[in-house]
Amino acid sequence: MQGRNTQAFRDDCHRRIVELDLLFCENGNEMRIKIASVGEPVLRGEARPLRPEEIRSQRIRDLIEHMRETLLDAPGVGLAAPQVGEPLQLAIIEDKAEYQAKLSPADLEERERSPVPFHVLINPQIHLVSPPEVAFFEGCLSLPGFTGIVPRARRVLVEALDHLGQSVSIEATGWYARILQHEIDHLRGTLYIDRMWSRSLSSLENYDRHWKSKTTAELRQAFEDRSQKTASTRI
Ligand code: ZN
Questions:
Q1: 191 CA to middle of ligand 1, Å?
Q2: Is 227 strand, coil or helix?
Q3: b (16+ CB within 10 A) / e for 22-56
C-alpha cells in the first residue's frame, strides 16, 4: 500500500481527523480506519446515494480499499461507509470460510451460513421476501463487546450497483441475507439494537458463559416469550 493514491487518501484522512474527531487513526506504517462506535451521529443519519461519476473516482476506490483492510483487520463480515465516518450508501461484505471454521456443521446448517466472496454494494434497495422471524445472536463492529438476538428475514432480494457502477441483483438466503439486512440498515441509520429482542442483549463474555450453547427454542423461551408476557401484563 504505497504510492500517490495512498498518500492522497492519507492526506484526506489527516484533514478528517480534525473534522471528525479521530474517526481515523494510524497504526505503524499501515493506516487503519477507526470504526465509529455507537453514539457517533454518523451512525444514525441517512446516508446519501453515490452519483454515477463518483463510483469510479479515486476517492471511492481508495475508500473501498481501506474499508476492506479495516474489515479484515477487525475482523468482520461486513462494513458500511457510515461506520468509517462517511455518510454514503456504500457497504462491503465478505464472509470467509475461515470465519466459519469454529461453528459446528449443525450450527452452520441451522444458520444457512456458507462463504460469501468479497463484494461491494452501492445505493442498495432491499426487499424482504419473508417476514423477519429467523432469530439469532448477531453483533456489530460499532458495538464492540456486545451481542443480541435479532429477528431477520430468511430471504431477501437486493438491487444495487457494484464497485464499477454496474447493476447487480442479489437473491440471498440465511446468514448472507442477515448480513445484507444488517449492512443496508446501517445506510438508513439503523443499528441491530433497534431490532433486537431487547432482553437478549449480552456481553460477549456472558454470551459465551450462558447463551452460546442454548438451542434456538431455549433462547426463544428465555427472551421472546418473556417480552410477550411483559407486554400482556401491561394490558
Ligand atoms: Zn454493524
A1: 7
A2: helix
A3: ebbeeeeeebbbbbbeeebebbeeebeebeeeebe
pLDDT higher than threshold 70 for residue 199? yes
CA of 232 to the centre of ligand 1 (A): 32
In angstroms, the CA 103 to CA 99 distance is 9
Contact 55, 164 (CB under 8 A): yes
Instruction: Write down the pLDDT at residue 15.
Output: 34
Q: What is the pLDDT of residue 224?
A: 84
46 is catalytic: no
Q: How far is the CA of 12 from the centre of ligand 1 (A)?
A: 24
CATH number of 4-234: 3.90.45.10
pLDDT at 155 over 70: yes
Joined together, the cell numbers standing for residue 61 give 476506490
Cis ω on the peptide bond leading into residue 87 (within 30° of 0)? no
Only one residue has cell 446516508, namely 47
Residue 33 is predicted with a pLDDT of 66
Cell of 195: 431490532
For the whole model, what pTM was predicted?
A: 0.83
202-203 and 146-153 strand pairing: antiparallel
C-alpha grid cell, residue 23: 474517526
Of 62, 75, 87, residue with least CA distance to 4: 62
Query: Of residues 19, 183, 205, 218, which has the active-site annotation?
Result: 183
How many A from CA of 143 to the centre of ligand 1? Answer: 8
Other residues' Cβ atoms within 10 Å of the Cβ of residue 172 = 22
